[in-house]
Model the fold of this input.
Amino acid sequence: MNDEVLLQGAGRKLPASLDIFFASIDAYIDFDPARAYTPKELEPYDALSDRFLRAFESSIRYFRTLEGVREVAPSESFRDLLNRREKYRAITSTGAWLEMRDTRNRIAHEYLPEEQAKLYRAIVGPAATELLHVRSTIGGAAA
Done:
């Protein structure tokens, strides 16, 4: 399979994962850590977390595919990949993406309501802003 076909495939998956993530963002209601939620009431928050994970991973997969097609050599680290994407203005901040990776890693391990509330705020705030930027740059400008 040639590189451009791989890039097109990644380029189709990314907008779809971003769109579904933003559907959860649009429906988001602040999480109250003092409230006892029923399992049914927690479903939108679980969906938000899952959709964030997919959007984040799809973005990284797209960045790596784009790099493999357009760059002479691959980045040696995740930070190098992000720095390269920031240089091309595909992301606004390497630091924001490192925070997003931390949020991604913490999602599976946080069960205290106060910590969950922090994670949801990070997802609907800075992470959503970065992913919105990515959505605006895919389609050629992110090269």
Remarks:
- The helical segments are 3-27, 39-70, 78-87, 94-107, 113-137.
- DSSP finds five helices and no strands in the chain.
